[in-house]
Amino acid sequence: MLRYKRFTMLHIRLFQASDSLTELTALLHRAYARLGQMGLNYTAVDQSAEVTAQRMRGGRCFVVVDASDKLLGTLVVQPTYAANECEYFTRSGVAAVHQFAVDPARQGAGIGRMLLQQAEQWARESGHTELAMDTAEQASHLIALYAGLGYSQVGWVQWPGKLYRSVVLSKRLAG
């Protein structure tokens, strides 16, 4: 549990079948709008609910909700996957985070940190020794945030169809 600035109780849990994919997708759109306005064509800027569901497969989708069960943040964590464009995401012992978002109205309240801590815990419990993610080079605010949370730059990747190069960041997980 985490108390938001206005003392609203927040709870982290797995995305449930009863949750709305449409609402989750709308959260992603709101959270990625600033990046889209920077000219960065992240998938989450305008993906459909079907793409949201597809990107959740093979991983664990965690959400942060308030007392009224409103979705405020999300991320997907999963074992590494076959991504020929990024060798780092195929390494043994590395789990990956993607589709990471916090509602812009709630950013700065610790929701993102809460989600990353949950992902790190899941990764450790699943036998992983590192947690990795990527973000556009131009998203310096995100790179600085992740660096402040212990993530270090370990490489770059150019995803097909993206107008930007991504920085790959990773954090070694303590046992």
Automatic annotation (TrEMBL):
Residues 10-174 form the N-acetyltransferase domain. CDD domains: NAT_SF (cd04301). GO terms for molecular function: N-acetyltransferase activity. InterPro entries: Acyl_CoA_acyltransferase (IPR016181), GNAT_dom (IPR000182), NAT_camello-type (IPR050769). It comes from the Bacteria. Gene3D superfamilies: 3.40.630.30. Signal peptide: none annotated. Keywords: Transferase. This is GNAT superfamily N-acetyltransferase. It comes from Roseateles oligotrophus.
